[in-house]
Amino acid sequence: MTDVDVIIVGAGPTGLMLAAELRLAGARPLVLERRPEQGKTPKAHGLSGQILDLLHYRGLLDGVRGLVTDPVPPHRFPFGGVHVDLTRFEEPPLKALSVRQQSLERLLEEHATGLGTEVRRGHEVVGVRQDEESVTAEVRGPDGTYEVTAPYLVGCDGGRSPVRAMAGIGFPGTTYPEVNRIGQVKIPEGLTVHDDGDIETPELGRIKAGFTRTGTGVFALGSLTPGILFIQTTEDDPGEVDDDVPMTLAELGDSIRRVLGGDVPLGEPVRLSRYQFSARQAERYREGRILLAGDAAHLLPSTGTAINVGMSDSVNLAWKLAAEIQGRAPEGLLDTYHAERHAAGARALLQSQAQVALRRGHDEAAEALRSVFQELLDDEQAARRLSAHVAGTDLRYPMPGSGHALAGTFVPDLALETDQGATSVAELLRPARPVLLDLAGRPELSELAEAAGVDVHAAKAEDRPADVLLIRPDGYVAWAGDADTEGLREALAAWFS
Ligand SMILES: Cc1cc2nc3c(=O)[nH]c(=O)nc-3n(C[C@H](O)[C@H](O)[C@H](O)COP(=O)(O)OP(=O)(O)OC[C@H]3O[C@@H](n4cnc5c(N)ncnc54)[C@H](O)[C@@H]3O)c2cc1C
């Protein structure tokens, strides 16, 4: 006997997104979160990459846009101490929004609970055991300890993941000694800001906008919001950072003094945070009935992309897990979660570790490397390619039955004309169902798809990329082609039958 379909451990962005996607797929998740209320320490302030398109496809992007804090669109992003300038692109190849993690989590929780998810806060998972039929979590709640049983349990419980440890899954990699401290502070008296963004301080004189490297670390200076300075220090620190201990203005001031050798006056803080980088990936994302997603599965040593990778894990996993629980999954479907998302995590690690190498060197050779890299990024094609790598938009999953260029890629948001009027790929994917999009009147293919439980939509598109597209609930094209019924049959059997 099981109590729910899926136990989700952790109510961060990964766990909440997974819960909502499972509900859309008709499964019953239960979210268990050890904190009685949302953590107060500021974490992410940026949401970027492919997940923004996916949120658009689920009808959530307008809500996320409503949370944006900094009015200046982030058309530049740092890549290991080098600036990637995207202002020359009409449509930036890496989309990003300044959104506070706490606000994002509140929006996702509302979405998940609105779809019928139960989120239990103050309930810590302290033990996990599994057998061939089910997995049981031992939970310490406000009224004592109890057990919950489900066919599957997913550890979305962050970088230190107790679930990962209890499942015996290794987490090899490196924790780097550098600690980053960030302060967004009001401009105080006694400090002049020049038109080019440089600042003038009484003790240290003029400090340039951008990166100042010294023998003890890096001082970064910028501004995203008028009247607010963005300051970051990076120093090697042998101790381990505890995310639950709040950063203070004094701690930032001390760090600046160690890096620059003097004081920078700091105004009232708007946001203070600190983080340390690790490059780690779980050896496997599945151990029997226990799965991992988000930071529990991977830690990336760069800013701005971790939530993208974590929430994308959830979207990839949910429909497969629901199909498995509902007894309609083809053989091996759930194992494609590890195959696809472990490879995606490894690719995200590749670019973020390259950033570590670019960022960490302080000698002339390292400066030369950064200069050459910066020069290469003046080339539009190079900037586009790097942006796509960081965004995760260059992922291509292997797809049986189709050699079409679109197969395995994220489906573009085509404008569509149907008998019922104008629509778009984004609208068709809102319910998170598999879709066969017939753009050329191919009833023989539509019938095959209908028989496999796929929603069929006949439509016209101005620039038709293929006659027919078979789209998975996570937005990836499972098959594209014309009259090849055998290819479509193979794809349907692999993903949906
Ligand atoms: C200062 C800072 C700045 C950052 N900036 C960015 C950024 O700009 N962009 C970006 O994309 N990422 C950023 N990150 C990374 C981002 O915060 C993480 O990638 C993200 O929180 C991971 O989400 P998650 O849901 O996988 O895990 P988490 O957010 O860590 O959530 C895990 C949850 O599991 C709970 N939990 C743990 N153990 C148990 C248990 N035994 N039982 C029940 N619940 C449990 C925890 O309390 C927690 O709520 C930043 C991180 C920090 C620290």
TrEMBL record:
Residue ranges constituting the FAD-binding domain according to the UniProt record: 3-349
UniProt organism field: Amycolatopsis decaplanina DSM 44594
PANTHER family for this protein: BINDING MONOOXYGENASE, PUTATIVE (JCVI)-RELATED (PTHR43004:SF19), TRK SYSTEM POTASSIUM UPTAKE PROTEIN (PTHR43004)
GO MF terms held by the record: FAD binding; oxidoreductase activity, acting on paired donors, with incorporation or reduction of molecular oxygen, NAD(P)H as one donor, and incorporation of one atom of oxygen
Protein origin, superkingdom: Bacteria
Signal peptide start and end residues: none
Pfam families assigned to the protein according to its UniProt record, in alphabetical order: FAD_binding_3 (PF01494), Rng_hyd_C (PF21274)
Keywords from the UniProt entry: FAD, Flavoprotein, Monooxygenase, Oxidoreductase
Protein name: Monooxygenase fad-binding protein
Cofactor(s) listed: FAD
Keyword Magnesium belongs to the record: no
InterPro entries per record: FAD-bd, FAD/NAD-bd_sf, RIFMO-like
Lineage summary: Bacteria, Bacillati, Actinomycetota, Actinomycetes, Pseudonocardiales
